[in-house]
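ENTRY TYPE: protein
WANTED: fold as tokens:
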Amino acid sequence: GVVVLLSVPNETLVKRTKHDKNRPSLTNHKNLKKEFESVWQQRKKAYFHAADIVFKPNPQSTPAANAGEF
């Protein structure tokens, strides 16, 4: 299969997940931004190594427009 890495800024991840009360913590950080930064620093080499394609969605576009670009 093909592995696609969707590369978005940490701020986007925080915005998308900050109100999700069911999302388990990955690191037990109280601050979501710090949590995502910590996990990204630990895993980014592995993520890029595993990815066949790296796609950076346009934050100004709709999900449908980004899907069309992909």
